[in-house]
Specification:
single chain, globular, 10 strands, 300 residues, alpha/beta
Length: 300
């Protein structure tokens, strides 16, 4: 399978002040998908402008025609499956069936306490994620759902007419642990990783490649345990969080080398951050656009 190249556009700019232009330009550049982060606020952007993912994607759908759109990633931290399903079905309709839901367990950042709750333990986070994904799957595929769970319930929740994409819009499940990988194998059209976070500060690119090889192996094992062929899943790497950091975006040659190594591992989609000046995602816009237009053709 040829490698797909996608981008993630952080929702930090007003629509009239560069927000709209980035999404339309992403389509012009030929990206496969343009994603956005689904957070209430995020890291160093916490004290600056930050807009909601679903309204942003709705606006993006209205100014693009071919570009797939999605979240990287939505989590249970501040979402409930019932209202989320209604928003996703509406968004899938408005976009003409171009939505991918990136979904993960979430972390211990600002989203984890913004609603006034105590941070969940790793066990509770995993339990909630499993219940969240299973219920959301039903809500997006059945006209009416009643379900009573430990964390999430639905009482005759109606979702007619359902998604444009059948049986529902695709899930891209972010996971590295055994329970999350099992969810990816069962519910995912794609699997998402950022690599091994323990290697970000002091690891090497070579160590990162080996860690990703191990993750891919565990994904294959999870698929085998559920009777699914791992080749059915797209393997997505959200870049920028491996020891390579921003170096792959320094030149076309650097990116082609980086992408080729990860394509050989088995990744089918790489996601690069739209450049943001004076941030961890700073990059030359001209080089970024050259990569978007030329890199995939060089990889064959």
């Amino acid at each position: 399978m040829s490698l797909r190249l996608s981008t993630v556009i952080l929702p930090y700019r007003r629509w009239s002040e560069g927000g709209r232009a980035a999404w339309t330009r992403a389509e012009e550049l030929g990206f496969h998908t343009a994603y956005t982060y689904d957070h209430l606020s995020w890291r160093s952007f916490r004290d600056g402008p930050w807009f909601g993912a679903i309204p942003t994607l709705t606006a993006a759908a209205s100014v693009t025609d071919r570009l797939r759109l999605g979240t990287l990633v939505t989590s249970p931290n501040f979402r409930h499956p019932v209202p989320l399903a209604k928003e996703l079905i509406s968004l899938d309709d408005l976009s003409g069936g171009r939505i991918t839901l990136g979904i993960g367990a979430g972390g211990n950042g600002f989203d984890a306490t913004a609603l006034g709750q105590e941070p969940w333990t790793p066990r509770e986070r995993a339990d909630r994620f499993a219940e969240f994904v299973a219920l959301l799957d039903r809500l997006l595929t059945e006209d009416a759902v009643t379900s009573e769970g430990e964390f999430y319930s639905a009482d005759e929740a109606r979702n007619i007419p359902g998604c444009v994409q059948r049986p529902r819009l695709p899930f891209a499940v972010a996971a590295t642990g055994p329970r999350g990988l099992k969810l990816a194998a069962r519910y995912g059209r794609a699997w998402v990783t950022t690599g091994d976070p323990k290697l970000y500060e002091n690891g090497t690119p070579e160590q990162s490649v080996e860690a990703l090889r191990g993750q891919l192996g565990k994904l294959a094992e999870a698929c085998a345990a559920t009777g699914r062929d791992v080749s059915e899943l797209d393997k997505v790497l959200l870049t920028g969080f491996t020891p390579d950091r921003g170096r792959p975006l320094e030149s076309l040659d650097a990116f082609v080398d980086f992408a080729g190594r990860h394509q050989e591992l088995g990744f089918t989609e790489l996601v690069i951050h739209w450049p943001i000046p004076d941030s961890d995602f700073a990059a030359e816009q001209k080089v970024f656009e050259q990569i978007a237009m030329e890199a995939v053709a060089q990889l064959g």
